[in-house]
UniProtKB/TrEMBL annotation:
Keywords: ATP-binding, Nucleotide-binding, Transport. Transmembrane segments: none annotated. This is Peptide/nickel transport system ATP-binding protein. Residues 3-248 form the ABC transporter domain. One of its GO terms (biological process) is peptide transport. One of its GO terms (molecular function) is ATP hydrolysis activity. PANTHER family: MALTOSE ABC TRANSPORTER, ATP-BINDING PROTEIN, OLIGOPEPTIDE/DIPEPTIDE ABC TRANSPORTER, ATPASE SUBUNIT.
Length: 313
């Protein structure tokens, strides 16, 4: 088992009070597993990713534990987490491709990064990995501005995995890319896993179709909590949580025009995480909510590896 997250609660301190961005998340990730993490904007996906590697100043762990390869991660101790970053856990953050230092050529940037980690650059290994993701070697002697968006993204991916971290968190790495570049990036991620550069991966995205292609398991979050987690095929073909069903129904179909099938979103909006309601947080938008939903639903394992937090599932 690579990763075990247990009852994790991470809140943001704000002037209006605590934003309960993660409110009791429990899940596991096996060796070799790619987990697709989906859910509406603001449900806590990025907060989960950041919590596993670097909390920002406003984040606070209120409870729970994170264990990676049998060691509990000191997630709220920024200094101690330094021993784990890049080596054990690596993050490709949202908008990573715009975060490359514009004043450094790529080779110098990688050399400096590795030096700061006490490691020398193994150029042959770096080039092998660049070949694998289809990046020409002359990229090393270019400035970030001289690379296309897709090239920058693949370069960031190579850099983030150079020290073979156990867990890679890829946060929205494909959202700003065109469809064929998205595929190249997704293939590269699969290649990293298959080559053993990373043991397991959390792929954070809004794109359910792409997630279904590359993830072994999909976890759906809603308002800071786990709604459903199951093998990717099960989530797409036989979801049990009403939120997952509505999420799938709101996807556009290629070849179907608006006049034939109106694209329905999910009516209503998620609750504020400053003062979330008791009971099921999806209750106000749920077409099948009943009285029992005033109580918080437990996460039940309905079938092996199929976890659902819904009284009606
Ligand atoms: N620095 C912050 N201070 C206060 N609240 C924050 C902060 N960052 C995020 N939040 C809140 O925490 C909740 C979860 O945000 P998060 O960014 O993790 O969601 P997300 O699912 O990753 O969204 P998106 O898909 O838009 O990236 C939201 O309610 C958001 O408003």
């Amino acid at each position: 088992m690579s990763l075990q997250v247990s009852e994790l609660r991470v809140y943001y301190r704000t002037l209006k009070g605590d934003v309960r961005a993660l409110d009791g998340m429990t899940f596991e990730l096996r060796d070799g597993e790619i987990l697709g993490l989906v859910g509406e904007s603001g449900c806590g996906k990025s907060t989960l990713g950041k919590s596993l590697i670097r909390m920002d100043g406003r984040m606070r762990r209120v409870g729970g534990t994170v264990t990676l390869d049998g060691h509990e991660l000191p997630i709220d101790d920024d200094r101690r987490m330094n021993d784990y970053r890049f080596r054990e856990v690596s993050l490709i953050p949202q908008y990573a491709m715009s975060a490359l230092n514009p004043t450094r050529k790529i080779r110098r940037m990688v050399t400096e990064l590795l030096r700061s980690r006490g490691t020398a650059l193994d150029t042959a290994e770096l080039e092998r990995r660049m070949d694998q993701v289809g990046l020409p070697r002359e990229v090393l002697d270019r400035y970030p501005i001289e690379l296309s968006g897709g090239m920058k993204q693949r370069m960031v991916m190579v850099i983030s995995t150079l020290l073979d971290p156990s867990l890679l968190i890829a946060d929205e790495v494909t959202s700003a890319l065109d469809v064929s570049t998205q595929k190249a990036v997704a293939r590269a991620l699969l290649g990293f896993r298959d080559s053993g550069y990373v043991k397991s991966m959390i792929f954070v995205t809004h794109d359910l179709a792409l997630t279904h292609h590359i993830a072994d398991t999909i976890m759906v979050m809603y308002a800071g909590k786990l709604a459903e987690k199951a093998p990717a095929d099960v989530i797409v073909k036989a979801p049990r949580h009403p939120y997952t069903r509505l999420l799938l129904e709101s996807l556009p179909e290629v070849g179907v025009r608006y006049t034939e099938r109106r694209l329905e979103g999910i009516a209503g909006s998620p609750p504020s995480l400053l003062d979330p309601p008791a009971g099921c947080r999806f209750r106000d938008r749920c077409p099948i909510a009943g009285e029992e939903c005033a109580q918080e639903p437990p996460v039940a394992e309905l079938a092996p590896d199929h976890h659902v937090a819904c009284w009606k599932a």
